[in-house]
Amino acid sequence: MTSLSAAWRELGELTGAELDGVPPVHEVSLLPQPVRLGRAHGYDGVRSLADLTPLLMLFDRGLAVRRDLRDRFVVEFGHGGAAASPPAHPCCASRSRARRPAASAPAVPRWPTWWPAA
């Protein structure tokens, strides 16, 4: 820890950053047990972090995106459906239904019409 602190101070001097009072590492896992927030903090009704997990759905956009992609896939292929090949650009799912396959295209299996063609 001493060498880490010395390197931290040296970094501050080299960059001109004011690092006095700023620890190089903040490690909360050194505590012997999880910290419980009691009545003084207004959290006496919360038994555990798991009780707060439903709030994650409100703030984690990744969960909403994954759920939307899953729902679109199920609409396209049905429950337990499969697709023939992987998408070329999975991050471009929003380039939606403009790439609908022709009517003569094979019906099953195929990638969703809202997913870019490979």
Question: What does this entry look like structurally?
Answer:
The chain is mainly alpha-helical and 118 residues long. It has two domains: 2-54, no CATH class; 55-118, no CATH class. It contains three helices and no strands. The chain starts with a helix and ends in a 41-residue tail after the last helix. Residues 91-102 have low confidence and may be disordered.
Give a summary of the structure in a few sentences.
With 118 residues, the protein is mostly helical.
Q: How many individual β-strands? A: 0
Oligomeric state, counting identical vs distinct chains = single chain
Backbone CA Rg: 25 Å
Quickly give the structural class: mainly alpha
Describe the secondary structure blueprint for this structure.
Layout: H1 2-15, H2 56-59, H3 61-77
Characteristics:
118 residues, mainly alpha, 2 domains, 30% helix, elongated
